[in-house]
């Protein structure tokens, strides 16, 4: 890995910021330069949260431009649709197959778009969808959606699994470590089920 641009997108409360810390910590321990930026759209009220994580020998700007993201980690389907044009050609997008209705949908002024993942797959390669919410629930808490997604992403990168587990241990509150390690393993093993 010489350079990696990761865009993490989701909705307030889904754990996107913790995910960025886990990823950034792994890269720092490998002696890479890491820069992150966060954009919150009323995150406490379920607004969009976008985090850029840039990793390289030297990073000059934390901002990922359109078609520059090697990986887009989408915690919610509609957010995936909104940000898919940041994925670079040949990049990979991981989409959590979860719907969180935005305010216009909640108040009846709009409908939640249908067939989002299929529409994205029709126009982009390397799209992986996963029901991370269901997997996290089976692990013991829906709050572990972020570590399921990190696990799936980690399985696609050339970084030893032990380094990811160490970062989870260092960044997750102690009482939630076990469930998050389990969720990471489920996500990590998911790719072996779909990429055969």
- The total strand number stands at 6
Structural class by SSE content: alpha/beta
Output the number of helix runs: 8
Report the span from N to C terminus: 24 Å
Q: Uncertain regions: pLDDT < 50 for 5+ in a row?
A: none
Strand order of the largest sheet: 2-3-1-4-5-6
The coarse silhouette is: globular
The arrangement of helices and strands along the chain is EHEEEHEHHEHHHH
* Helical content band: 40-55%
Percent strand equals 15-25%
Query: What about the largest sheet?
Result: 6 strands, mixed
- Average pLDDT number: 93
Radius of gyration: 16 Å
Describe the structure.
There is one protein chain. The protein has 196 residues and is of the alpha/beta class. The chain contains 8 helices and 6 strands; from the N terminus they run E-H-E-E-E-H-E-H-H-E-H-H-H-H. The protein has helices at 16-29, 77-83, 103-106, 116-123, 132-139, 145-155, 161-171, 177-194; strands at residues 3-11, 33-40, 48-56, 69-74, 87-96, 127-130. The chain has a 6-stranded mixed β-sheet, with helices on both faces. Strand 4, helix 2 and strand 5 form a beta-alpha-beta unit. The longest helix has 18 residues, at 177-194. The mean pLDDT is 93.
């Amino acid at each position: 890995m010489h350079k990696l641009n990761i865009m993490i997108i989701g909705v307030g409360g889904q754990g996107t910021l913790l995910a960025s810390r886990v990823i950034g910590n792994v890269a720092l321990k490998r002696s890479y330069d890491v820069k992150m930026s966060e954009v919150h759209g009323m995150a406490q009220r379920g607004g969009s949260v976008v985090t850029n994580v840039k990793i390289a020998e030297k990073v000059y700007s934390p901002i990922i431009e359109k078609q520059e993201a090697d990986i887009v980690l989408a915690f919610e389907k509609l957010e995936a649709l909104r940000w898919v044009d940041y994925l670079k050609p040949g990049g990979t997008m991981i989409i959590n197959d979860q719907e969180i209705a935005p305010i216009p949908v909640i108040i009846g002024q709009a409908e939640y778009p249908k067939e989002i993942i299929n529409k994205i797959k029709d126009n982009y390669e390397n799209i992986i969808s996963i029901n991370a919410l269901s997997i996290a629930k089976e692990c013991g808490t829906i709050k572990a959606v972020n570590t399921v997604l990190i696990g799936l992403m980690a399985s696609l990168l050339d970084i030893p699994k032990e380094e990811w587990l160490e970062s989870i241990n260092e960044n997750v509150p102690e009482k939630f470590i076990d469930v998050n390690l389990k969720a990471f393993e489920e996500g990590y093993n998911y790719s072996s089920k779909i990429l055969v």
